[in-house]
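Good morning N.,

You mentioned wanting to compare the apo and holo forms, so I went ahead and generated the holo version with adenosine monophosphate. This is what I fed in:
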Amino acid sequence: MKIILFGPPGVGKGTQAKLLVEEFHCAHISTGDLLREAVKNKTALGLKAKSFMDAGNLVPDEVVIGLIEEVLKSDAARENFILDGFPRTLPQASALDGLFAKLNIKLDYVVSMDVDNNEIIRRLSERLLCRGCGRIYIASQLLAGERTCKQCGGEIYQRDDDKPESIKRRLDVYQQQTKPLIDYYQKSGRLAAVNGMHEIGYVHKLILDVLYKGTTHI
Ligand code: AMP
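and this is what came out, ligand included:
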């Protein structure tokens, strides 16, 4: 199973990817996670990407395309994978098609999730993350002052780009640069659309309907 999870920031791509990894034991390739890791470790890639990410802008295409090429060539991604957060621009989508052709990879689906903007803003402003394992928490569901991850003991924090100024910028960037990809994938017949407004478990079921039964419009 080789899929792309597509949608605006905050739609639940990361959450759904984690559920799919449990189901299919496949690799979860999130460019956002890879870039945050690089920033944390202050690598050359991280130093290049940080200012773009903090401002809610996209990291330049050549940087993320190079990163994805490296990952797709590695053994981890040979069998099955979920791409989360890539591609985000037309040049990235066309570079990815080139890479798939070169590496003889056949993409099964682009699962596109959508929710309205008010819901995105609500979800992102409530979202907290564990610095250690990446587990997602909802601020209102934590006790006052609770900042330690139940899974790994890591620190729970808010991403800089989940603060209001950056959220607005990320939504604009999505509208202008990323949303046009829906057309790109629709034209090639690979798009399956899922309503991301439902609760997490139901969205997961809808995605499984796509992957197991080939239902492409839900
Ligand atoms: P995410 O965790 O997917 O929301 O990504 C966080 C940030 O990483 C984005 O706001 C971008 O700055 C950067 N990023 C992640 N994936 C990409 C991509 N495919 N192209 C450009 N920038 C990206």
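The longest strand covers residues 109-114.

Happy to go through it together on a call whenever suits you.

Best,
F.
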